[in-house]
Amino acid sequence: MSSNSFSYNEQSGGGEATELGQEATSTISPSGAFGLFSSDLKKNEDLKQMLESNKDSAKLDAMKRIVGMIAKGKNASELFPAVVKNVASKNIEIKKLVYVYLVRYAEEQQDLALLSISTFQRALKDPNQLIRASALRVLSSIRVPIIVPIMMLAIKEASADLSPYVRKNAAHAIQKLYSLDPEQKEMLIEVIEKLLKDKSTLVAGSVVMAFEEVCPDRIDLIHKNYRKLCNLLVDVEEWGQVVIIHMLTRYARTQFVSPWKEGDELEDNGKNFYESDDDQKEKTDKRKKPYTMDPDHRLLIRNTKPLLQSRNAAVVMAVAQLYWHISPKSEAGIISKSLVRLLRSNREVQYIVLQNIATMSIQRKGMFEPYLKSFYVRSTDPTMIKTLKLEILTNLANEANISILLREFQTYVKSQDKQFAAATIQTIGRCATNILEVTDTCLNGLVCLLSNRDEIVVAESVVVIKKLLQMQPAQHGEIIKHMAKLLDSITVPVARASILWLIGENCERVPKIAPDVLRKMAKSFTSEDDLVKLQILNLGAKLYLTNSKQTKLLTQYILNLGKYDQNYDIRDHTRFIRQLIVPNEKSGALSKYAKKIFLAQKPAPLLESPFKDRDHFQLGTLSHALNIKATGYLELSNWPEVAPDPSVRNVEVIELAKEWTPAGKAKQENSAKKFYSESEEEEDSSDSSSDSESESGSESGEQGESGEEGDSNEDSSEDSSSEQDSESERESGLENKRTAKRNSKEKEKKTKQDRTPLTKDVSLLDLDDFNPVSTPVALPTPALSPSLMADLEGLNLSTSSSVISVSTPAFVPTKTHVLLHRMSGKGLAAHYFFPRQPCIFGDKMVSIQITLNNTTDRKIENIHIGEKKLPIGMKMHVFNPIDSLEPEGSITVSMGIDFCDSTQTASFQLCTKDDCFSVNIQPPVGELLLPVAMSEKDFKKEQGVLTGMNETSAVIIAAPQNFTPSVIFQKVVNVANVGAVPSGQDNVHRFAAKTVHSGSLMLVTVELKEGSTAQLIINTEKTVIGSVLLRELKPVLSQG
């Protein structure tokens, strides 16, 4: 400690520092427990000067030292004022360390922290998401009731933040606020309800943890979010997965019927006298109705299965307990292999896993029988692991494998670990009682152990033999005689007491030996253990009743010794026996039944597993590990007899294009898209603060798509300034999309009239069995317009870019989005869709068609676009004003928007003669692309250039039928406006496109692997768009 105490002063004065270090122990300050470390005043003065320096490097160095002091357990609280001054520093690194310091001392130094409340509140508005989150953490760490309203307000604001990282911290703060002031429960539940709707994987685990802490009984909050949580589960961080899985296990037990009733129906053929034949028939039909699993029940089981391969033991354990508690018994077997894999982990993980396997193996032996050898004991295992493995081996023992196990047990008995050896002997006894064929073999083996040199082994053998002999005492008189001889050598009290009990119970079968044993015991009575003394008294009483001629005086002598024993229990026992067996005038009616009382038939002991009564606790919980209900444990409810209404889990579909059957699918895909775009922003934000700020703009766009138009307008306008940098990067090449689309429209007509020989190259994709109403992919013509040539040359990706041509987009069903609901628009309804056609208003613009409907009974006049709130760089070409729209009338108009290669929201006002309505349009990332036709050779060449940071990939798991060429093509083009690239390999599917604004290539590869997996690879210079597209394609390709 002394060397640490002066380490900071070695620069200025070595001698003084040494002196201070040596005297540190004697100058303990009485001010507090950390006085020992506060003695070096110069050190802290030095740090204060550094913190007040004008140089960021000095401040950063000081903060690093202070955090180092805290890590070593030193008290740095007196530096609080100097540190707080730097909370407004512009240097992000300093700010981060200041907040680390404040989180540590906010609770301890509440008064000082309260002085800085205004600083933290300002930081909650900081443009950097890391600072906003840190400020919220500090605020929630000041545990003072007076600031509860401020904390509540901060949590509410943070829950609507554009950054998922801040929203995640809001969820963490909910738990802290609830523990500080439980009266805030109702308001916190409102925030939890809002955050549960969040589509970011970063937030999901934290908000479910808050739900479990604050309102675990409010299952109704989960209904609408159930399917979303199931689908997002694979992408949530590991500890979030554990929390969500445990919560969904409880949810499933309340919402679905038991999948275990398939063969358990009891036959009830009895007919009630008053029942009609029709009633009887109805009851029979009801009883014979086969079990069908709820699709949502199956969704949960299917989506958790991949997590059995997780690297995190807690996740695997959580999935295992879910399968155990809610899956059909026929499917639960898949968890055994994953649990056995965890036995290669450290001993703490092994201990918990083995406990759970021990509980499972009692009810379903077949699950773990194939892995019997995995439970053999190793010499390096600690005792706790050895005994658990023994327990499992005992549970798995049957007639087929008992001979192998007994040979294994023989080795264990010789172990130097005496506790383990004793446990093995008990295990042999349990095997003998469970498997009657080996009872005699086990008994003979235990008798052989009686000659062992180790007293503990002998004592344990005696105890186990005693239990075995209770089952069939008449056949084993010789063993009892042999054990009587051991009384001279065995000193362990339990073993001696067991032998005496056995002789007493069988005293009529060994009439010559029993009195002699009593004689020897009378000699040593005073020096025996209390347990042995009680058995000597019992033996004397039994012999007095069966052989009083030989043992009457001996028994009276023992009773007299017991009468004056130091232990009151023995004295009481002696008096009781004397009154019971020695009749006199005071004896009551019980004396007549003394023999029946003492020599009554004793039931044989039941040797059961200590884990038998643990199955009522949920596996993997602390309560199961301790076999005691722990604080906060939430019990699993019994399965309901009748399943609650499944429609509560249905989510309202906002889209109105019901005439297209695939549009329903498109909505599901949209919901997946929204989430994946959103969470991508968080990953990139970890690289640098500027990145995180610029990407929060795309986050605002994602929220707009969820239907919360009002919030989205404010968010996008507030955040537009933070996106200025990112937009300047994105403006480098948007000019190519519209012209190319116009050309592709002309080419589509041409290709329909006369097809080129290239049809052969894409024969795999030229299929119409997946979509009866769609046309095949239109193929490119070799002719290129001058403007298209200019666009392609602008890509600057390779010298041979002239071989890359824009192709006609594949026809896909129209996906319609709500722009203005008729209720919000006072009778005016508006919907929009992306026709994937060239925009007539500009080459850089995405074409959008808007359908306006008048649902009122009066004419709507002067429909036009009003005020526009567009992020920097974004441009919009509006439609011409509509003079009037007749009642029940409808009109479709076109407009163009230059989105600058981003998924930002375009906010504007749709106005009539009397009103203005705020609306917004947000493009899916797939609509920002233009399909490109290129050869396989050129594709590989361009892909070779776009590697490293320009490449993102993901592994997809789906059924083999979802990996046919037609299905892959359909799914990819539904999500993104891309063109198919001919492929010479059956297992590789390639697609190409370019971004509208910058003309950057977007290369998509789906490579099928062995089994039911595939790799999705995207190569592009626009890494943000590429990452968003990857996250949208992944769930779509994984769906059945």
Automatic annotation (TrEMBL):
The keyword Membrane applies. It holds the Pfam family AP3B1_C. Residues 666-677, 727-758 have a biased composition (Basic and acidic residues). Keywords: Cytoplasmic vesicle, Golgi apparatus, Membrane, Phosphoprotein, Protein transport, Transport. Coiled coil: none annotated. It is found in: Cytoplasmic vesicle, Clathrin-coated vesicle membrane; Golgi apparatus. One of its GO terms (cellular component) is Golgi apparatus. One of its GO terms (biological process) is intracellular protein transport. Its main location: membrane. InterPro entries: AP3_beta, AP3B1/2_C, AP3B1_Ser, AP3B_C, AP_beta, ARM-like, ARM-type_fold, B-adaptin_app_sub_C. Residues 1-27, 268-292, 662-760 are annotated as: Disordered. Residues 928-1038 form the Beta-adaptin appendage C-terminal subdomain domain. Residues 678-696, 705-726 have a biased composition (Acidic residues). Residues 757-904 form the AP-3 complex subunit beta C-terminal domain. Residues 1-11 have a biased composition (Polar residues). It is a peripheral membrane protein. Belongs to the adaptor complexes large subunit family. Subunit of non-clathrin- and clathrin-associated adaptor protein complex 3 (AP-3) that plays a role in protein sorting in the late-Golgi/trans-Golgi network (TGN) and/or endosomes. The AP complexes mediate both the recruitment of clathrin to membranes and the recognition of sorting signals within the cytosolic tails of transmembrane cargo molecules. AP-3 appears to be involved in the sorting of a subset of transmembrane proteins targeted to lysosomes and lysosome-related organelles. This is AP-3 complex subunit beta.
